[in-house]
UniProtKB/TrEMBL annotation, chain A:
Pfam families: LOB. It comes from the Eukaryota. This is LOB domain-containing protein 12. Residues 4-105 form the LOB domain. Belongs to the LOB domain-containing protein family.
UniProtKB/TrEMBL annotation, chain B:
Belongs to the LOB domain-containing protein family. Pfam families: LOB. The lineage of its organism: Eukaryota, Viridiplantae, Streptophyta, Embryophyta, Tracheophyta. InterPro entries: LOB (IPR004883). Residues 6-107 form the LOB domain. This is LOB domain-containing protein 12. It comes from Sesamum alatum.
Amino acid sequence: MNSGRCAACKHLRRRCLSDCIFSPYFPPNNPRRFAYVHKIYGASNVGKILKDLPVSRRAEAADSLYYEAYCRIKDPVYGCVGLITILHQQIYNAQWQLDRIQAEIAALSTTTDHRSQSEVQQVENVGSSFLPDQNGVHDSNSFYDISNWFD
Amino acid sequence: MGGGSSPCASCKLLRRRCAKDCIFAPYFPPDDPHKFAIVHKVFGASNVSKMLQELPVHQRGDAVSSLVYEANARMRDPVYGCVGAISYLQNQVSQLQMQLAVAQAEILCIQMQQEQPPAAMVGLPPPPQDEKSSLLLATNNFNSLQQCLGFASTSTSVMQDPLKRESLWT
């Protein structure tokens, strides 16, 4: 028995050749990884998928196949499509909340602008009351006590 | 083929007799051969049959739909399949959550500004006794918004390796 077999060849009970397509991506210390992939896709299909890819992309492909197989075993009805549905819903909810808050900000900003404008107008009115009239006389009745602003 | 009824897409592709209790027939009608072809290519007829047999009948339709979706995704993107879409969507969720946090901080700042005394709003020289408190309040508002904006602008991109399993496994 070749004790250096990859997880795939161990699972399939066959000799692990030096050019085994699975061995770089299914190490013997993680038998579950190949078991899941084999259960969902089958060794033959996984081998075909990997062979059709350039060597530089095979590791990522093996990882994504493992992830999808894991999701399918956890959720036999929806697999990873269930997660996609949940993410779409989260995006919808977050966008709705964001739109609502931005509308609120716009409304509050408008209120702030109106208040600022009316306060500026008040200040101008106050300021003008300190100016003497055309005869150089201050109108004491229009004196505006600002000391209570800072209570 | 007996009885004159047309075999389902699966049995047509597999070139076998379509039995009355064929597990594929309800989900792979003969007028859509591509649907089964793609599922067979990615998963294999035998594996699909086993998966369907392990499910109650009322869930098999949904299972077939999701398998077709995954198979299509894998054909479009042989490296990442559905995982590419998941990674993209997770990134969108993160970005929206950041935008929400910024917007929420902004609305808080606006509300705090509206509660300030008018002197601070119109730029009148603050009275000596409250100068420090007005400035402190304005500074705090500015800092909290700045913190949020700083957080949003300096946070690292979430377009990480799509196979970052720690984030995808939840």
